[in-house]
Amino acid sequence: MTGTYDEPVPVPAPDSVKGILHPDEQARHRSLARLSAGPEVGRFVEWYWSVRWDLTGRPPYYAEVLPFPCVNVTFERTETRTGGFVNGVCTTKYVRELSGVGETFGARFRAGGFGAFTGLDVGAFRDTAVPLTEVLPDAEDLADRVLAEPSDTQRRTIIEDFLIGRQAAADPNYRLVLRIVAAMEHDLELTRVDQVTDRFDIPIRTLQRMFRRYIGAGPKWVLRRYRLQDGADLLARGRTRDLAALATELGYFDQAHFSREFTAEVGMAPLEYAKNSLRSRNEVTSKVIPTRM
């Protein structure tokens, strides 16, 4: 359940992999941990996440994600870059090369949260990442302090101490954005923008402006992204018996429409993705529970 404006959002269960493509295969190449946000910053920050990998002597791995409609502030130490970054909403499949030894600690803001917290139009960060100090000049030494601390819990404390000193005023438009996005994510009957405008009694132009300002992408894209994430998650879990019914549940015109969009975004057809996920899951299981001879 999504928290209210004044409640921190619960951290997903350990087995929640929504948005992560090829989750079982990816888990063999890196670790993933999540931490809840403290009550002082929970209005804006959804939770924190930590990824670490050691692929010494192994080829690089390309981790793929269908990102959520939110901004992530990351603190990274890798072979290619080190420092703090503001990562805007990514409207395509995100691919991250993992090589050598590296780590990323991230603060995932709520949908619209970074825009409400900073007062900035987050559309400027769409599909890009910029150094943290270009957005928050007073965060000059924040990345160094976060990365110098090995404990994720202490890293969270350092970030939250910084954020608490910059708390923003209440924003009624942000409250509305949170309500709309929560409905889009959790109500599978919402598949069209006109359904959203009717439910919340808001003109389409107003909705579009709010989403560009606070989220960085339009309401139609947000709806499609959530439904596509739902489809990828169900396929990875083995839902293959009736793709036509699955397409209908997700709000697509028909199976062909779902297959075209899924293939364009993910890079492989739904059944191929499901088979790949099953193969990866079986490989993991065979290592944990060896086959008896």
Question: Can you walk through the features of this model?
Answer:
- It is a single chain.
- With 293 residues, the chain is an alpha+beta fold.
- The chain is 43% helix and 17% strand.
- The chain has 12 helices and 8 strands.
- The protein has helices at residues 23-27, 113-118, 132-135, 142-148, 152-164, 172-186, 193-200, 204-214, 219-236, 243-249, 255-266, 270-288; strands at residues 31-36, 45-54, 61-65, 72-77, 82-87, 94-98, 101-109, 129-131.
- It has a 6-stranded antiparallel β-sheet with strand order 1-2-7-4-5-8. It has a two-stranded antiparallel sheet with strand order 3-6.
- Helix 4 runs antiparallel to helix 5 and helix 10 (243-249) packs across helix 11 (255-266).
